[in-house]
Amino acid sequence: MRIVATIEARMTSSRLPGKVLRPVLGRPLLSHMIERLRRSWQLDQVVVATTHNETDDPIAELAAGLGVGCFRGSEDDVLSRVLGAAQAHDADLIVETTGDCPLIDPEVVDQMIATFLSNKVDYCANVLKPTYPRGMDVQVFPTEVLARVEQLTTDPADREHVSLYIYEHPGQFRLLNVSSGLREADAEHRLTVDTAADLALVEQVFERLYPSKPHFGLHDILDLLRGDPVLAGLNRHITQKAVR
After folding, report:
1. Do residues 51 and 72 lie in contact, with contact meaning Cβ atoms separated by under 8 Å?
2. Cα gap 105→126, rounded to integer Å
């Protein structure tokens, strides 16, 4: 089984345009995320799924420079873009991630993949009942399942949010959610980048942890936040945009 992580990334995000290429420690956030995903021992390839827009040419150039796959498709029909990325790179299993999760922990990724492989399910994730900090979001499903969904829905929300149709139809698909075992207070942190406040926190995490421990993981981040309430509170006021 060929396992491929797709990273949805574009420059025209509404709340923080260009966020995926914002520099942290002299490198784009997307570069950091790719580095972290490459530490997964389960993944065969990482593919950036970006758009045909000229504004996303720098994303394609970054992917080429880092030697990872790149697929360019529709800006709005993200479902077809991710499916195209998977099919173009012969993926049997898709590990769906988004470019606003530069702190993603490869151990969490590997846990999701291993859990999928050891259970007879169509979809395995840690987002159905969130018990991980936002920014550790991982969804795993076969390419053939997404190809089936692509034929089943034209709903704009389904097309924008790749796996939405899957987990909103538990009668059609076998779903499995993975819990973190973390304390509720730890799970409530925002480790994603959607706003300037989110970016400020993520920058601090990289600047404080990366120089001495480039392979830092989720528990290192949580230790840092527990010890610095001011840092932990930088983006506490931010609310996540609703899917529908």
Report:
1. yes
2. 13
Q: What is the DSSP letter of 56?
A: G
Global pTM reads: 0.96
**Rounded-to-integer distance, Cα 195 and Cα 85, Å:** 27
E strands in the chain: 3-8, 23-24, 27-28, 45-51, 69-73, 93-98, 123-125, 139-142, 175-177
188-191 long-range CB contacts below 8 Å, 24 or more apart?
188/133, 189/133, 189/134, 189/135, 189/221, 189/222, 189/225, 189/232, 190/133, 190/134, 190/135, 190/235, 190/236, 190/238, 190/240, 191/101, 191/103, 191/133, 191/134, 191/135, 191/136, 191/221
Binned average pLDDT, 10 residues per bin, the chain of 244 residues: 97 93 97 98 98 98 98 98 98 98 98 98 96 97 98 97 97 98 96 97 98 98 98 94 78
Look up the domain containing 67 and give its range.
3-182
Write b or e for each residue in 155-174: b if 16 or more Cβ atoms lie within 10 A of its Cβ, otherwise e.
Answer: eeebbebbbbbbbbeeeebe
The b/e string for 10-34 (b: 16+ C-beta within 10 A; e otherwise) is: bbebeebeebbbbebeeebbbbbbb
Is residue 124 within 8 Å of residue 176, measured between CB atoms?
A: yes
- Looking at the DSSP assignment, which residues form a beta bridge with residue 93? 3, 142
Report the alpha-carbon distance of residue 137 to residue 6 in Å, rounded.
12
Q: Are 71 and 88 contacting, i.e. CB atoms less than 8 angstroms apart?
A: yes
- CATH of residue 144: 3.90.550.10
Number of structural domains, the chain? 1
